[in-house]
Structure formats: structure tokens, C-alpha cells
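so i finally got all the pieces together for this one. its two components total, 778 residues if u count the protein bits. some of the lines might not be protein, just check the labels. i wanna see the whole assembly predicted at once instead of chain by chain like last time, that was a mess tbh
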Amino acid sequence: MARACVVGAGMTQFGVHDEPLEELFADAALSAIHDAGVDGDEIEGLYFGNAMGGITENDTHLAPKLASHLGLQGIPCQRFEDACATSSNAFKHAVQSVEAGVHDVVLVGGVERCTAETGLDTEAMTRTFASASHREYEQPTGLTFPGVFALLTKRHMHEYGTTEEQLAEVAVKNHAHGQYNPRAHFGREADVAEVLDSPVVADPFHLMDCCPFSDGASAVVVVSEDVAETYDGDPVAVSGIGHRTDAVPIADKAAPVETTAAKEAANEAYAQADISPDDVDFAEVHDCFTGAEVIAIEALGLVPEGEGGAAAMRGDTYLSGEMPVNPSGGLKAKGHPIGATGTAQIVELTEQLRGSAGDRQVAGADKGIAHNLGGDTATAVVTVMEAAR
Amino acid sequence: MARACVVGAGMTQFGVHDEPLEELFADAALSAIHDAGVDGDEIEGLYFGNAMGGITENDTHLAPKLASHLGLQGIPCQRFEDACATSSNAFKHAVQSVEAGVHDVVLVGGVERCTAETGLDTEAMTRTFASASHREYEQPTGLTFPGVFALLTKRHMHEYGTTEEQLAEVAVKNHAHGQYNPRAHFGREADVAEVLDSPVVADPFHLMDCCPFSDGASAVVVVSEDVAETYDGDPVAVSGIGHRTDAVPIADKAAPVETTAAKEAANEAYAQADISPDDVDFAEVHDCFTGAEVIAIEALGLVPEGEGGAAAMRGDTYLSGEMPVNPSGGLKAKGHPIGATGTAQIVELTEQLRGSAGDRQVAGADKGIAHNLGGDTATAVVTVMEAAR
């Protein structure tokens, strides 16, 4: 079985956009296509992710529409939706299609508009984001995602002594990284006092513990390793993708704070890649909230259980540390256009593993991992990639 | 490469349901699981389709929720959305995953609620269904799907002399078949006068030329041919699945009335199955409107170009004819719960090819074809199945 490689990667600025979804997606897709040096008529399929466009823009059946806008009408196109893990799951299927020989060259990506540019106000958008929680048992209680992750983080604090200062340090770190990412929604420095002084959203989270929702798009071109050398873009190999779920609603999870789905997805990805967490040089993780990053790096085995907060405090997860986490700035600084977030992590892995990440380059990056969550940690997709040259 | 087989199939009554999506889906899924005689812990993945649940019920991230309700939490789950072709595309990916050896046993299905049980009125639902047309170029004009298919059908009438009586005969035939399907939404006989006397919805379509939108769910269990004999359910082999798209919006299509995507998807499916249209014993086609069935059977090569209307008039497409079309009653009589329609066609193919379709059994059914459209014919998925024993 030939491995799948990414040979092209592109994304828009994450932030506020007034273009329609097809134009936003085309920006990212054409960047990826140009980076790969692939001709349009070589692209055999579109694996596409969008989470909320039905609710926010009354726009479903987006895959053929976006393909048409790119001049790719005719090819098989499919839309995936798995909450915040939407485009990672599209990527998984694209990779599997290439590994199986169904396709040799495919385009993968996602797009979302989450800001007031959709025409929806904060109340309507809050209700929309809550659509990814349990309709009968959670939505009626008013439990939105800041509350979900606050509950998990409170438990982590109780069990391991994680502090608000440690959480704040995660935000400060990701903003420190994000200042070097020209496509970040909030690419500027912050300090611990600013985080702790910001308004409380859901205890223990202050506003600055929370990622922003953004408008944006991301895309990659995936090809078979057998033909990767024929394209312009430096190939980066996909050596493992794990995908697991956990019970919904959160009250039915056996061990919510462990994020069991993420642990099992990571183990699957490591096994496929034949590596251990010790081999990982850096990670892009789903830091929708600072506490989510703390829990994520433990689930991935990158730090010992309970050490996620302390690791940030010690500087271990900074670009200069022993295990850089979220060199892109993460969801926290880069932004979180829901359906685009998964493939945006793949874009960052690609750039890091090519050594083309500029001021935010992880030194000696040879193997990277991406961790993308959906909903109340019910979906987890974990991807291992490595330099192919 | 081992072929994929369906070893279990189930669906709910199509019609009006007040259960939440997870209970409706569980009814279909547990029927399929029971039919297959598969244990829950053997099921390795859920390939799931729902088209409109975000808009209609503020319920996204449905795949892990539905898996949890079935006691299947933990397995990889994914939601597909491709308008009315939603669960056919889920089925394609499930089949590909089995053919590739990624999984040996998977559950596939779809669910939708489209009636007033969602709490939405006709105006809101009309807007919801229109979300599958072009957001910028078509929705603002008020062009909803009766209008889209009326345009295609008017052109067909102009080019080939197809008549309103021929269209009415398609409805009459599908109701004649549907009276033998205990799960049909409108399983009762109709006559040509009733169709022609019903109110005009979009010229040339009367109300009785249009399928109803329904609540319902359908599911199948797909396994590798290598292990098919170990299950209780008679296996039916998937010998080809074609999937193509066409330009969006409709004004950009080179030849709208030919439904190019369907033609090409059919050719791909025939090639994979190594058969020609002459080998097909019966077809389930996407008769969202009577004119859509006329066009579909031509695109599939089951009747000569321009002969779709005349074929119904001659009785060729009746159960007793030479090429039975929509023995289930089709979308017209069986109903159309959008995300459930694709796998419901697969349920019908399975029952026909097992010879277990009762009063609506196609005599000598050995090879069947399913044709599922999404949007303004922009997505087409065509599946060939054959008796495996």
C-alpha cells in the first residue's frame, strides 16, 4: 500500500471575511493547488468539510457548488460534518481513498463563516454552535461549549492541582506563537495578567482562555506517494490517522476528563505510523479553550498525566521548549473557522515538516501530530505526518 | 480485492414520526443489525447520512450521538451530507472502506424528519429544502426544486414529445407498486385522472407528480465478502458504485436535461460491475418528480433516449413489464425522508435480490441498480448490486 502525501497546502487569513463560502474556499484551494503545481484536470475528487453552513447561511450541498466555482465540476465531491473535527474527517477519507488506490490526486479542505458577516447575532450563533451538543439532554439546559470544557477543566484542576495561572500561560504561549503567523486571527502577544483580568466566561475560563470563532478556509492536495515526486510541492507523508468517538451526551462518558476518544485515536495513529509519543517533535492540538490543550497533550502522551498545565508553566510547550505545542498559534490565536480547522492543522504540519514555517519554525521538525476534537470530545481525529524527503 | 456485501437491511415506516432522530434511526439500524445477525461489538464504523437536521432541528454532530444511542460509542463515526444523495454517498464510502480492508463490518444508514413534526411550517421547510440550491444565484430567485425539475421536464417534453399523461402514468405505476410496500408513506393506488386533476405545483407538475417529504430512517450492514457467509442475512453483493457531479448552478450545466452526472455515474458503475444496461433486471430511481424518473431511466440506458415517458405508458416499467422501475413505490409512493432515501434504495435492492420482496417481488431479479440524485442533479450516485448466492 502506497502512503498518501500532502504536496500542496493553503489557507486564507483567519478572521472576518465578507466573501461567500465558495470564494473563501477557492482562495485556500487555489493556494494549495498552486503550491502543489497540480493541474485542475488531474484532481479526481473533493473531500470537503463544513459544519454549520446549513444553519448559518441556508447553504447545504456545498461540495459540488465549491467544485464548480473552482472549475472542477464533474468529479465526485462529498461534504463531511463532524462538528469541529469536520475537515480532519474529510482528510481521513481522502487519505484512505489514496491509500486504497481509488484516487491518485484529491483536493481536501474546509470552510466556515462564524462571525457577524453571516448576518447572525451572538445569540443566534451561540444557539448554532450548541447544535453540536445533545439536542434533547444538553441544549435545553443551556450547556454550551465553554461550559462543557470548563467542567472538564475544573475536574482536571481538582485531580491534578492545575491552576488558572497555568491555563493563562497556555493562552500566552499560543499568542506568542501566533504573532509569527501572518494568517492568525489574533496574532499578537498577550501576558498572564491580561488573561486573568479578562471577564469570566465559564469558571475557570476567562475570555482570553477561549478561542475566537472565525471566518476562513484551508485546503491541501493529497496524492499517492508513488506520484508525489512529479509535483512541485515538497511532499509530506501521512503515516497514521486515528479516529475514535466517545459517548454522547457527556454524562454518559465513562471518563470525560481523559478524553478517551483522543487517547484511542492517538494510539491508533501511533501504531499505524509505528512510532511512540517520544518520537513526536511537535503537535498541533485542539485548544478551543486553554484547558482543552492541557488535557490534549496528556491524552496524546506528550506529557505525563496531570502535567499538562505545569508543562506550559515550565515553558516546555513553547517553540523553544522540548515539545512545542501549537506553533501556529493554535485555535486560540490563529482562530477557529469550525469546518476549516482540521485541515488548517494539516497545513501547519505540512509547513513545519517542510521547514518553511519561517519565524515559527520548530527546529528539527521531522515528525508532527495533529489532534482535532468534535463536540464535547465525542469525536477525535489524530494524524501523524512526517517529512518525506 | 474482496467485494462488499449487504448482509442486513432495515427501514422504518416512511411517513410522519414524532420520535427524535436517534430513536427513528435506531429502529432502522436495529432491524438491519438483527437481520444480519451481527453482534454490536463486531461493528467497526458508522457511515451516516442526514441532510437537513442542522436547520430543521438544530442537531449536528449526529453520528456519535446516534452510535451512542445504539450502544456503539467508540467506533469511528461520520456524517455525510450531499442533499438528497446523502446516504448513497455514505454507502459508497462504507463499501470502499470494506473493499480496501479498512473495515470488515460497518453500519450505514440515514435519517431525516421533514414533516411538521419538526415544528417547522411549510414556509420554513420550503426554505430549508432550497438550501440545496445555489445560495447566491438560485435561492434569491425563488427557484425551488419543483421548479428545477419542471424546467428539465418541460425541455424533455419539447425535445421528445413527452406528455403530461405519460408523466401521470409514472405516478400511477409507482403508487401501484407502493400499495404492496407496507412501509410506504402513500401506499395506495391512484389513477391518471387523479393525477391530472390535482393542483398544478410547477407546470407541468401537478401535486400528484411530486413525491412527498417524509420522516423516516433506513440502514444496512455492509461486510466483506470474505466473511459474509458467517452472518445470518442472505448476502447481496455490491458490484459497482459510480459517483459524479455536475456544475452548480443549473444555468452552468452544459446539458441539464441529460443529467450528465447520472449518465457518467451509471457508466462508472456498469464498468465496475462489468455489465451493460441490458443486464439490469430492475431499477430503483430518484423519482422526486415524475419527470425525474423519465429522465433517469434514459440516463441509466434502460430505455432509449426520449422513450422514458412512452415506456411508462406502454407498461414496460411496471412490475410486470420488461424493465420494472421503482418496485418499492419510489420516492413518489414510498416517501422521501431526504437523508434516508439513498440507503432505502439499497434496502429495496437487497430485498429484491434476496427474493424476499413479497407482493412487489420482481420475477427473476438477479441484478439491480439504484440511482440517487442530489440537488439540481448536481450529485449522482449509481449502485449496481447482484445476488451473491
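The longest strand of chain B covers residues 236-245.
Chain B touches chain A through 59 residues (CB under 8 Å).
anyway lmk what u think
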